Amino acid sequence: MSNFIAIRRDLHKIPEIGYMEFKTQAYLLNYINSLPQERLEVKQWETGIFVFLKGQAPTKTIAYRTDIDGLPITEQTSVDFPSEHPGFMHACGHDLHMSIALGILTDVAHKPLDDHVLFIFQPAEEGPGGAERMLASTIMQEWMPDQMIGLHIAPEYKVGEIATKPGLLFANTSELHIELRGKGGHAAYPHKTKDMIVAGAYLITQLQSIVSRSVDPLDSAVVTVGKLEAGTIGNIIAETARLSGTMRTLNPEAMETLKTRVDAITRGIELAFECEATVDFKLPYYQVFNDDLLVTEFMNFTSAKTDVNVIHCQEAMTGEDFGYFLKEIPGFMFWLGVDSEYGLHHAKLNPREEAIDVAIELMVSYLRR
Ligand SMILES: CC(=O)N[C@@H](CCC[C@H](N)C(=O)O)C(=O)O
Predict the structure, then answer these.
(1) Number of domains in the chain
(2) How far apart are the C-alpha atoms of 156 and 355, rounded to whole Å?
């Protein structure tokens, strides 16, 4: 087993959510401190880390970013290194992302490049977002890179495949939080109450009409309610209902349509069910937009390799706060095939670990080209 597969397994056992990645940060720092230190400068930022590796004859700084947080999901895989944190799992592949980053860092720490390389270990990609804040940090301002690179595992592609494209790769996103408040009471006296479970159910059903009836059919959009909390027991009418979800669009203007329609439909529910509602659109993520020239050069470079197959993919409705880095710094993101039967954010996600060495070798050869 490669050292970086072992590292991935260690990290897989300790998933932590955004800005709580204390054990993860300690593990990463411990490893980074074991590398040759002559050219390294390491700075902690919240639960994240910046590692600056001085080049030998630098003309620019290239940044490589990995996210480090896990998700609140109870793991259901049968791997023999499962999550040791009940209710939490690396179900989006950030354990692989981190081991790949450490693999690249290890190589260049032993054999420095001409250019500087900045490694960014970023917290809270799944929320509330770390990229925008890291970008604004004084550390990043001091070490501002000229180019950014990031990857994300892709369960639908085979090991040895990568996929990307020039221009738009990932969607614009916004979280959606709605709270409905009515008058609870005894289940036998519904006429004396305002039942927020019924109101919430109507609301969720009506939200489904936004994509089908308010968004231009030639655009793409998603409105997903992923969490609904309401009620306490079967014979009490619920006083509150809380919905949380996410909205996605490929076109930034379509996001404004979604917000306007969510607001309008919620106001309609307030009237119809005689309740009060608050709508909160939180934590927008800017789209991931690849630099045409850089990503095309990377795709051509990779195509010339015999061991990696490059797929020109379509845009995805996933969100990534890596988009904030690419808004300011030219660069690109790509999908790394890991061939898992279960997808991202699934409790049975089980990426094939051979992809780790594929990615390290690809990135090291790209950086040394
Ligand atoms: C790659 C990936 O799965 N990213 C997450 C990002 C979450 C963004 C935000 N918290 C939201 O849910 O809107 C995704 O769900 O796409």
Answers:
(1) 2
(2) 13
**CA angle at residue 125 from 123 to 130, to 5 degrees?**
55
Domain of 266: which CATH number? 3.30.70.360
Write out pLDDT tens, residues 79-91. 999 999 999 999 9
What CATH number does the domain containing 57 carry?
Answer: 3.40.630.10
- Residue whose entry in the numeric block shows the structure tokens 């690109």: 332
Backbone angles phi, psi at 264, to 5 degrees: -65, -45
Same domain, 120 and 187: no
| Ligand 1 pocket, residue 283 CB under 6 Å | yes
Give yes or no for a contact between 13 and 2, defined as CB atoms under 8 angstroms apart: no
Q: Are residues 178 and 145 in the same domain?
A: no
Both 12 and 109 in one domain: the answer is yes
Across-strand partners of 164? Answer: 312
Catalytic residue status for 292: no
The pLDDT value recorded for residue 282 is 87
Range of the domain at 198: 174-284
State whether the beta carbon of 285 lies less than 6 angstroms from ligand 1.
yes
pLDDT of 206 over the 80 cut: yes
This model of the complex carries an ipTM of 0.95
Q: Which atom of ligand 1 is nearest to the CA of 248?
A: 13
pLDDT tens-digit series, residues 161-203: 999 999 999 999 999 999 999 999 999 999 999 999 999 999 9
69 in active site: no
Asked if residue 8 and residue 120 are part of one domain, the reply reads yes
Answer whether 0.80 is exceeded by the pTM. Answer: yes
- In angstroms, the CA 217 to CA 141 distance is 41
